[in-house]
Structure formats: C-alpha cells, structure tokens
C-alpha cells in the first residue's frame, strides 16, 4: 500500500471534510431521498434520481477520504530546517528571464492550491525544486517551454 504524504494541516482538512460528509451531508441526502420517495412513481421522479446521484457522489467521496487518511504519511514540517528543498518547504523562486518572484509551499496532492501558493509535491515545479538549495537554479519543463528559476529562499514554517 503506497503512503500518501501530507502536512498536518492537510490531514486535518481531510478529517474535517469527512466529518461534515458523514454528519451533515449523508443525513441530509437520506432525508431528501425519503422525501422524494414519498412523491410516488420513482421511474419519473427527477428529485429522487438527483438525490440518488448526489448520494452516490457523497459515498464515493467518503470512501476516497477514508482511504487517503488510512494511507496518510503525515509529515511535521515544523521539525525541518536548513536550505535544502524537500516536502513541506516554502520556497521563493525568481524567474531568470523575467525576474518575477513567486513563493510556493510544497504539499500533498489534496492540499495543492495555486491560488493559496501551495503546489503538489508531484507537480513539475516541485519535482524540479526538490533536492536543490538556496542559490541553485532549477529547470522546469512547462507547456510553453523550459523555464529557469533561481531559488532565492527556503523556509520551513
């Protein structure tokens, strides 16, 4: 069974989502199905079919989260230090061509959100950065072509 790396923050977010699905969404959809059944003929009951479809989605998501939590490898980033990039690092990079600066935190796949400055450990940028240190350059293959980034800062928060 393959372990799934995630931060403690990501693990807590999955647990919160699972709790909400089990304690709020599941009972709500069961009530909606019961109400739709009371309307009569199920073969032409759009409310019933929509509720059953939503129930299927919720149960699938519950199973998916249960599996991820069972295989979670929670990594305590606060114990890391140094200038070498690894999972959990917050990295400031500078585009060599445009001198545009960006800061990313390398996290698990389920935690990734570019809007929040979090990139998946499996993303092309993260894969290019892992193992490098402050001052190094990283070459990233992007759809628009190869990009070079200088690593300006590495932090573990």
UniProtKB/TrEMBL annotation:
Domain Transcription elongation factor GreA/GreB N-terminal: 4-74
Keywords, sorted A to Z: DNA-binding, Elongation factor, Protein biosynthesis, Transcription, Transcription regulation
UniProt GO BP: DNA-templated transcription elongation; regulation of DNA-templated transcription elongation
Domain Transcription elongation factor GreA/GreB C-terminal: 83-156
Pfam families: GreA_GreB (PF01272), GreA_GreB_N (PF03449)
Any GO MF annotation of the entry: RNA polymerase binding
Superkingdom per UniProt: Bacteria
Record InterPro entries: GreA/GreB_C_sf, TF_GreA/GreB_CS, Tscrpt_elong_fac_GreA, Tscrpt_elong_fac_GreA/B, Tscrpt_elong_fac_GreA/B_C, Tscrpt_elong_fac_GreA/B_fam, Tscrpt_elong_fac_GreA/B_N, Tscrpt_elong_fac_GreA/B_N_sf
PROSITE patterns, A to Z: GREAB_1, GREAB_2
Family: Belongs to the GreA/GreB family.
Known role: Necessary for efficient RNA polymerase transcription elongation past template-encoded arresting sites. The arresting sites in DNA have the property of trapping a certain fraction of elongating RNA polymerases that pass through, resulting in locked ternary complexes. Cleavage of the nascent transcript by cleavage factors such as GreA or GreB allows the resumption of elongation from the new 3'terminus. GreA releases sequences of 2 to 3 nucleotides.
HAMAP family per UniProt: GreA_GreB
Protein name as annotated: Transcription elongation factor GreA
């Amino acid at each position: 069974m393959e372990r799934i790396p995630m931060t403690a923050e990501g693990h807590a977010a999955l647990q919160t989502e699972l709790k909400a699905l089990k304690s709020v969404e599941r009972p709500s959809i069961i009530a909606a199905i019961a109400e739709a059944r009371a309307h009569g003929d199920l073969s032409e009951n759009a409310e019933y079919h929509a509720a059953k479809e939503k129930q299927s989605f919720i149960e699938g998501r519950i199973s998916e989260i249960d599996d991820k939590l069972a295989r979670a490898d929670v990594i305590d980033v606060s114990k890391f230090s140094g200038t070498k990039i690894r999972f959990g690092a917050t990295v400031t990079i500078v585009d060599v061509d445009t001198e545009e600066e960006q800061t990313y935190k390398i996290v698990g796949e389920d935690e990734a959100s570019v809007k929040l400055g979090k990139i998946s450990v499996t993303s092309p940028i993260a894969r290019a950065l892992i193992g490098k240190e402050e001052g190094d350059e990283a070459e990233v293959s992007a759809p628009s072509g190869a990009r070079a980034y200088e690593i300006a800062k590495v932090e573990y928060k």
